[in-house]
C-alpha cells in the first residue's frame, strides 16, 4: 500500500477503504508518513468530503491510535458530556455536580482552551492545588467514591487526533464536518461511558456559525456514536451571546459556585437543566423529563450540588476555602466599567468579540505556550433584549494592566448593538438530534 495511491484515490472522489484509512493514521502517527503527504490527503478530504463509512473508519482508526479508559469498574451507568466550545461556557462545572448529586456517575476528561473559547481545565486551575492530572487508578477511585471527576486527557488519548488537528490548523482544513466529527468522537469514545450528550454551540461565538452546518455535524456525531453502540444525543444551543454573565477563568468558577447555590443566571441554569435532564434519562436515573428536572432542581435548592462540587474539589486536592468564600479566588487589580453611549434595547452582542476582549486582557491563550491570567476577564451586565439607558453599565473589564483594560473597554462597547425598538429575548435551545432524527425548537 502506498500513500501516493491513497491521495490519488481521494483526489479522484473515490471512497477509501478501512485498511487505507488505518494505513494513513498509523503511518502519520508514527512519523512514517510526512506532513506534505498528510496535508495533500486532508485537502482532498476537505474538497471531496467523506462518506458515512469513511468517517466511521477514520474515527475508529484515530480512537485506536492510543489508549482507552475502561469504566466497567465504576458502579452504575456512566454518562459524559461534551461542548463544541463557546464564550462563557462553564456548564461542565455546574452540570457535573448536579448529575452526580442525583446519584449518576459523571466522569469527564476535559481540555484546555485556545483562542477566545475557554477550557474547563483552565477554569479549574483558578482553584489552588486542584489536580487535573490524575492516573487512571486515581480517576476511577475518585469516581467510585464521589461519582464525580473532571480531569485532563491522558497524553495518549487519540494521539492521531492531536497530530492531525495541528496539521489541519495550518493547512486550512479545519472546517470539514467529517474531520470535526471524527476528532470529537475519537476522544469521547476513548472514555468508555454508556451515553454521551453533546452541546453543539451555534452562532458568532461558536465554531459552528450557522444552524444547517450544526445539524449536519450533530447528525454525523450521533451516527458515529450509534455505530459504536454508544447512545449519543446532541443539543444545538445559542452562542450569539455569551453564556451566563462571565468570561474568564476565576470569574467563571465564581459564577459556577453561585449557580450551584441556585443564584445563577437564568440562561446558564436552564441549559444545565436541559442537558441534565437528558443525562438522567440516558443514565436511567429518571423515567421522564419532568422527574429528571425535579431531581436536578432539588440538587440546587437543597445545596446537594454545591456540596458535591466541594467534594470534588477536596478529592482532587483543591482549596475548598476558595469555594466557600469565592472572594478568595484570583482577583484582578483593576475592574473597569463599560458604559453605553446609546439608549434602547440590546439587539445583538458579538459573542466572538466578547471572547476576544477577554483574550486581550489575558483570560485566554493566543498559542499553546501562552500563559493565562486566571483573574482576568469580562463581566456582562446586559444581555440581548435588556433595556439600556445612555450611561448604563453594560459590562466590566477585570484586568491587571490598566492601559490594556481601557482598550478592552472600547472593544467590548463595540461588541454591543443597541436598537431603539423592542427586542425579544433570544431562544437558548435551538434543536436536538438523536437516533430518531432532528427536532427543532
Automatic annotation (TrEMBL):
Role this protein plays: Catalyzes phosphorolysis of the pyrimidine nucleosides uridine, thymidine and 2'-deoxyuridine with the formation of the corresponding pyrimidine base and ribose-1-phosphate.
Reaction equations catalysed: 2'-deoxyuridine + phosphate = 2-deoxy-alpha-D-ribose 1-phosphate + uracil; thymidine + phosphate = 2-deoxy-alpha-D-ribose 1-phosphate + thymine; uridine + phosphate = alpha-D-ribose 1-phosphate + uracil
EC number(s) from the headed UniProt entry: 2.4.2.2
GO biological process: pyrimidine nucleobase metabolic process; pyrimidine nucleoside metabolic process
Gene giving rise to this polypeptide: pdp
Residue ranges occupied by any Pyrimidine nucleoside phosphorylase C-terminal domain in the UniProt entry: 345-419
UniProtKB keywords: Glycosyltransferase, Transferase
UniProt cross-references to NCBIfam families, sorted A to Z: PRK05820.1, PRK06078.1, Y_phosphoryl
Residue ranges the record marks as coiled coil: none
Gene Ontology molecular functions: 1,4-alpha-oligoglucan phosphorylase activity; deoxyuridine phosphorylase activity; thymidine phosphorylase activity; uridine phosphorylase activity
SUBUNIT field: Homodimer.
Domain of life: Bacteria
SUPFAM superfamilies noted in UniProt: Nucleoside phosphorylase/phosphoribosyltransferase catalytic domain, Nucleoside phosphorylase/phosphoribosyltransferase N-terminal domain, Pyrimidine nucleoside phosphorylase C-terminal domain
Entry-linked InterPro entries: Glycosyl_Trfase_fam3, Glycosyl_Trfase_fam3_N_dom, Glycosyl_Trfase_fam3_N_dom_sf, Nuc_phospho_transferase, PYNP-like_C_sf, PYNP_C, Pyrmidine_PPas_bac/euk, Pyrmidine_PPase_CS
Protein name: Pyrimidine-nucleoside phosphorylase
Family: Belongs to the thymidine/pyrimidine-nucleoside phosphorylase family.
Gene3D superfamilies per record: Nucleoside phosphorylase/phosphoribosyltransferase catalytic domain, Pyrimidine nucleoside phosphorylase-like, C-terminal domain, Transferase, Pyrimidine Nucleoside Phosphorylase, Chain C
Tagged with keyword Glycosyltransferase: yes
Any one Gene Ontology cellular component term annotated for this protein: cytosol
